[in-house]
Amino acid sequence: MMDTIFALATGEGKSGLAVVRISGTSAWSAVTALGVDLPAPRKTALRKILDSEGGVLDEALVLLFEDGKSFTGERVAELHLHGSIAIVRAVLAELGKLPELRLAEPGEFTRRALENGRLDLVQVEALSDLIESETEGQRRQALRVFEGAFGEKVGQWRVNLIRAASLLEAVIDFADEEVPEDVSDEVSDLIGRVSKEIGEELEKSGAAERLRLGFDVAIIGAPNVGKSTLLNALAGRDAAITSHIAGTTRDVIEVRMDLGGLPVTLIDTAGVRETEDEVEALGVARALERGDRADLRIFLSDTGTFPDVPRRDSDLVFATKGDLSKDPTAISALNGHGVDRVVTAIQDRLKERSTDGGLVTRERHRMALERATVLLENSARFLNIGTDQYDLAAEELRSAIRELEILIGQVDVEAVLDEVFANFCLGK
Ligand SMILES: Nc1nc2c(c(=O)[nH]1)N(C=O)[C@@H](CNc1ccc(C(=O)N[C@@H](CCC(=O)O)C(=O)O)cc1)CN2
Ligand SMILES: Nc1nc2c(ncn2[C@@H]2O[C@H](COP(=O)(O)OP(=O)(O)OP(=O)(O)O)[C@@H](O)[C@H]2O)c(=O)[nH]1
Ligand SMILES: [Mg+2]
């Protein structure tokens, strides 16, 4: 029997409401222990929550879920408390005194939902992405996987490959008895179809992965060209210090923002120049390094000269301080002129790389599907050699099937589960 676990399910700190969730066989009796007269399942009721001495901790809504009919699949109780730090602390302390209960680990409620077959492993990851989502694009992508689109697709691939493996195994098993019918066409067709579909998903994986993680956009240029001023204009706040002194910015300054549904981390960097100043030189090295790693770079100049950095086709280039020059294409971050053009240009460049519709959003998924692809290629090769290699073809197929099963968590691999749950929110 599993422990009954509990945790604060809502955010830390002061808030309108705070929900404490309890899951496991003792979930309801724990609520009784808080002096609550239990309401019927799924019917909220207003109840006083008491400590062990009978003192009132809060007046709250209590909600019970029956075994098998909850998010975790276990018996669940929720206490919808006033969102006070003191109330939450006191209620959690009372629950901690009950011998059958312990505090949940990050992601443990969701882990139980997985173990009870209510979610598959890619849905678990999508749930984590959904909670982490900050932009529309990220929310839509995570929700699609959470609703089961990827799990279903992988499930179909698996069924097709199992059929292919069974056909081969039937031939192997009966090889000494009767002449088996020729299965190679059907097997090769099944393998070919699955490989093609996996390939199509893998093609979209780069974009889907980028959308999940967000894009790094670095602003690069010589000192004093107005990089930090542009960052502030885009961020809508004074995130970076600006001054007329060349070499003001020394460290890398990052601001996360939502650019038309795209998650962008805008990066302001030190002005690039040769310098005797040791600290500034470190800043310049960082600027070049971050620029190198960035998904997109914006080069700024107020004189037409740029740092000597190898260029990419995708680089955006803008002249600055348009209010001081006659160049009609120059932007002015100081008075806001042309800043909208910068935003549109960033969006255009990034949109190309973040087409919606991808399901393969994680390196873990991509690697599993890449391994499966290689195994399927091997299998097809053995299949083509002839019946005496069918056992090897079937073995490669079984390995490919296993990759798919690990991918959706149909077979437990502790290391995979630990990796997936390591980054989960507390209380989820
Ligand atoms: N108060 C509260 N709100 C919440 C959650 C929660 O756990 N508690 N959720 C937590 O993530 C999400 C909703 N997810 C849920 C998923 C399944 C069930 C559930 O009880 N399923 C049962 C009954 C379904 C039904 O009512 O038709 C079942 O599937 O058998 C509840 C919430 C978001 N909002
Ligand atoms: N007139 C005018 N001045 C600007 C404009 N943009 C920036 N400046 C000024 O130029 C000076 C340098 O701006 P910063 O944004 O600090 O320049 P930077 O590129 O970040 O400089 P470093 O951090 O030293 O590399 C400041 O005095 C800004 O007010 C602009 O569009 N028009
Ligand atoms: Mg600066």
UniProtKB/TrEMBL annotation:
<keyword id="KW-0342">GTP-binding</keyword>
<feature type="binding site">
    <location>
        <begin position="224"/>
        <end position="229"/>
    </location>
    <ligand>
        <name>GTP</name>
    </ligand>
</feature>
<keyword id="KW-0963">Cytoplasm</keyword>
<comment type="function">
    <text>Exhibits a very high intrinsic GTPase hydrolysis rate. Involved in the addition of a carboxymethylaminomethyl (cmnm) group at the wobble position (U34) of certain tRNAs, forming tRNA-cmnm(5)s(2)U34.</text>
</comment>
<feature type="binding site">
    <location>
        <position position="78"/>
    </location>
    <ligand>
        <name>(6S)-5-formyl-5,6,7,8-tetrahydrofolate</name>
    </ligand>
</feature>
<dbReference type="GO" id="GO:0005525">
    <property type="term" value="F:GTP binding"/>
</dbReference>
<feature type="binding site">
    <location>
        <begin position="268"/>
        <end position="271"/>
    </location>
    <ligand>
        <name>GTP</name>
    </ligand>
</feature>
<keyword id="KW-0819">tRNA processing</keyword>
<feature type="binding site">
    <location>
        <position position="118"/>
    </location>
    <ligand>
        <name>(6S)-5-formyl-5,6,7,8-tetrahydrofolate</name>
    </ligand>
</feature>
<keyword id="KW-0460">Magnesium</keyword>
<keyword id="KW-0378">Hydrolase</keyword>
<feature type="binding site">
    <location>
        <begin position="243"/>
        <end position="249"/>
    </location>
    <ligand>
        <name>GTP</name>
    </ligand>
</feature>
<keyword id="KW-0547">Nucleotide-binding</keyword>
<feature type="binding site">
    <location>
        <position position="249"/>
    </location>
    <ligand>
        <name>Mg(2+)</name>
    </ligand>
</feature>
<dbReference type="InterPro" id="IPR004520">
    <property type="entry name" value="GTPase_MnmE"/>
</dbReference>
<dbReference type="InterPro" id="IPR006073">
    <property type="entry name" value="GTP-bd"/>
</dbReference>
<comment type="similarity">
    <text>Belongs to the TRAFAC class TrmE-Era-EngA-EngB-Septin-like GTPase superfamily. TrmE GTPase family.</text>
</comment>
<dbReference type="InterPro" id="IPR025867">
    <property type="entry name" value="MnmE_helical"/>
</dbReference>
<feature type="binding site">
    <location>
        <position position="224"/>
    </location>
    <ligand>
        <name>K(+)</name>
    </ligand>
</feature>
<dbReference type="InterPro" id="IPR027417">
    <property type="entry name" value="P-loop_NTPase"/>
</dbReference>
<feature type="binding site">
    <location>
        <position position="245"/>
    </location>
    <ligand>
        <name>K(+)</name>
    </ligand>
</feature>
<feature type="binding site">
    <location>
        <position position="21"/>
    </location>
    <ligand>
        <name>(6S)-5-formyl-5,6,7,8-tetrahydrofolate</name>
    </ligand>
</feature>
<comment type="subunit">
    <text>Homodimer. Heterotetramer of two MnmE and two MnmG subunits.</text>
</comment>
<dbReference type="GO" id="GO:0046872">
    <property type="term" value="F:metal ion binding"/>
</dbReference>
<feature type="binding site">
    <location>
        <position position="228"/>
    </location>
    <ligand>
        <name>Mg(2+)</name>
    </ligand>
</feature>
<feature type="binding site">
    <location>
        <position position="248"/>
    </location>
    <ligand>
        <name>K(+)</name>
    </ligand>
</feature>
<keyword id="KW-0479">Metal-binding</keyword>
<dbReference type="InterPro" id="IPR027266">
    <property type="entry name" value="TrmE/GcvT-like"/>
</dbReference>
<feature type="domain" description="TrmE-type G">
    <location>
        <begin position="214"/>
        <end position="351"/>
    </location>
</feature>
<dbReference type="Pfam" id="PF12631">
    <property type="entry name" value="MnmE_helical"/>
</dbReference>
<dbReference type="InterPro" id="IPR027368">
    <property type="entry name" value="MnmE_dom2"/>
</dbReference>
<dbReference type="GO" id="GO:0005737">
    <property type="term" value="C:cytoplasm"/>
</dbReference>
<dbReference type="InterPro" id="IPR005225">
    <property type="entry name" value="Small_GTP-bd"/>
</dbReference>
<dbReference type="GO" id="GO:0030488">
    <property type="term" value="P:tRNA methylation"/>
</dbReference>
<dbReference type="GO" id="GO:0002098">
    <property type="term" value="P:tRNA wobble uridine modification"/>
</dbReference>
<feature type="binding site">
    <location>
        <position position="243"/>
    </location>
    <ligand>
        <name>K(+)</name>
    </ligand>
</feature>
<feature type="binding site">
    <location>
        <position position="428"/>
    </location>
    <ligand>
        <name>(6S)-5-formyl-5,6,7,8-tetrahydrofolate</name>
    </ligand>
</feature>
<keyword id="KW-0630">Potassium</keyword>
<dbReference type="GO" id="GO:0003924">
    <property type="term" value="F:GTPase activity"/>
</dbReference>
<protein>
    <recommendedName>
        <fullName>tRNA modification GTPase MnmE</fullName>
        <ecNumber>3.6.-.-</ecNumber>
    </recommendedName>
</protein>
<dbReference type="Pfam" id="PF10396">
    <property type="entry name" value="TrmE_N"/>
</dbReference>
<dbReference type="Pfam" id="PF01926">
    <property type="entry name" value="MMR_HSR1"/>
</dbReference>
